[in-house]
Amino acid sequence: MFLRINEAVKFINTFGNEFQKKYYRSLFGNYNIDQTIMYLEKFQNADGGWFQIDPDYKGTVSSITCTMTAFGKLERLNIMKSPLIDKSKLYLQKNQKCDGLWDEPVEILDFDPPYWYYPRIKENQIWFTNGMLRYVISRCPDEDMIKRAKNYLKSFWLGDRFPGYDHNDWMGIVSFFNSEDPSEKLIWENCLNNLNKNISRYDLADVIWTLESCYFIGLSKYEPIVQKALKILMEGQLDDGGFGTGYGEFQRVDVTIEALDSLANYGIIPRFK
Hints:
- The chain has two domains: 1-34 and 202-267, no CATH class; 44-184, no CATH class.
- Helices cover 55% and strands 0% of the residues.
- The protein has helices spanning 5-15, 18-27, 33-40, 64-76, 83-95, 122-139, 143-154, 167-175, 182-198, 204-216, 224-234, 252-265.
């Protein structure tokens, strides 16, 4: 499949906001990362949580989902140490429930978010917790938070999958990676098997997040799941140069940026450095 890289970059520059343009240029070595981080800081509240970094959410109350989104961008930028991460860690420690879960605050409903943001819904709480655990492991490892989140998630394991969203599989291959616990090894193996079986029906955004997780845990481009995901991704560019997603037109700039980053991570396209 022939990738039209220049057209993808044009799409980003035409439709992206100021942060998205800086984000793209930083990923590809053409912009000072410190300046991008300074701009990213505008989306962090004083309590350490994040807002509006995900186009799905227009509110100002700190959001667990937006905190995941911010950590995903910090991971792609390869930022491990930052006051932004330190503040987020305190927010996550404060907001993790006694049983290990993370949930969105009820105040978020005042801003009419999509259903997958809704608090107090079990399938949402599971993916909030799995996703936040995945990024805690990636950006701010904390033994207590990790243990409690894992125990919460394991209480809902159905033997071959988590209930609810497919997101749990690409999250789970990080959340339960490289564990010595036999039950956690089994979860990891099943999450990977589920990805291999089901990725052909995933939205392109989920394919990109799958590649992000695979890359983080060190799966090579010769692994079957990576091969499948890369093939789907390389077929996902639309006529306007951007990459498509069923999650909404407003998500396409981020999807296009992170599609290019995933392709560069696996050596399919150059970094332009």
